Amino acid sequence: MGVTLEDNAGAVAAFPATSRFMSLKRNESGSELVEFALALSVVLACVFGIIDGSRAVFAEHYVVNAAREATRYAMVRGSSWNGTACTTPATFSCTATSAQVTSFVNSNIPPGIMSSKVGVVTTWPGTTSTGAACDTVNGTDSPTCVVSVQVTYAFAFSLPFLPQSAINFSSTSTSTIFQ
Fold it and tell me: Domain range spanning residue 156?
């Protein structure tokens, strides 16, 4: 069975196309499944993208908060500090050292943050908050001197369609030592 077409002059032309081909062309069964698969792919990509983006915001928030907390830890443990915690283990005792500040940050890492990618740099520049030289008779961690803590984290997205290179989050917090 062939298909016939009639032109304006009334001539009839026959084509070898079968009715089966024409019926397949009009058959739309299964199209909903294809549309659903495409829509689901887009929706899932968006959902997982939002989850990975939220992980990035969480990591950035952690870095900022860790720098603030580490600075506070160091500023209350200056050279004149004589708190009761001086009898506790060496990692959290008396005056703060760079290693102790790093240990403090590493002890407060939440789930989802890889400790191997966290970096901590603590400095006591020997100046006041105005930039003038401070009294360093008892060391650069004397009261009125400044302590600065920088925390970094190399974050990597886990989804293949997001950037694969690490995003480096960094936060520096500076405060005046008061004990």
Answer: 33-177
